[in-house]
Every structure is written in structure tokens, then in C-alpha cells.
Amino acid sequence: QLRKHLRNHTWMVYTPGLTAVMDLPDVAGLHAPGALLAQQCRGDALFPLPAMEQANQRLRDHWAKAGVPERFRGTVHDVPHSFNREMQAEAFEWLERWL
Question: Beta partners for 39?
Fold first, then answer.
């Protein structure tokens, strides 16, 4: 993702040299075994759908390796870049469960 799609996103997520050792899903994976909800939008132009699916799989792998697969959820919503009411409800439910 960093190598192929960074130009579409903010510079703030880029650490020089990071791609030599890991990608963004690997950085997020450092949070395991803590809970993580990753919400993505199918119509978001920042990353193509295959990259979203690959990121979710890598994240699932990190949480499975940590022995707590239930603490990760990756969802892809059929909307453009947004945080709509459905996504907010999902996020609040997740926060109530894990905080």
C-alpha cells in the first residue's frame, strides 16, 4: 500500500524507510492483541478494493497470530469516502465492546 497508493493519501502516514521493513497493515498489527476495527469504503478513491481486501487479510493474520482473532474486524462499506450513520453505529458498538 505504501509503495503503490501513498501518492493518493496524506504524507503524515509515511515514515521514510518504512517500506523496507513493513507496510501500513503491519504497523497497525503492532497493536495486537488490542482490539481494532478497520472500516473502509468500496467507493473510496484513496485505495483500490483489492488493496483494502489485502490489508484486511494481513490484519486478520496479525490478530490470529496473536491468538485473538475476535479482536479484529475489517469491514468494507458500499459507499464513497465517508463515515455514515451505519459506520458510526458499527464503530460505537465496537468501542462499547472493547473499551
Answer: 75
Is 59:95 a contact under the CB 8 Å cutoff? no
When computed from its CA atoms, the radius of gyration of the chain, rounded to whole angstroms, is 14
Query: Residue 83: which region, alpha, beta or left (left: phi > 0; alpha: psi -120 to 50)?
Result: beta
Which grid coordinates are listed for 25? 497493515
Q: What is the pLDDT of residues 27-62, one digit of tens each?
A: 999 999 999 999 999 998 878 899 899 999 999 999
Give the residue ranges of DSSP H helices in 1-99: 2-5, 24-29, 49-65, 85-98
pTM here is: 0.83
Q: 27: which strand partners?
A: none
Tell me which residue of 38, 47, 50 sits closest to 80, measured CA to CA. Answer: 47
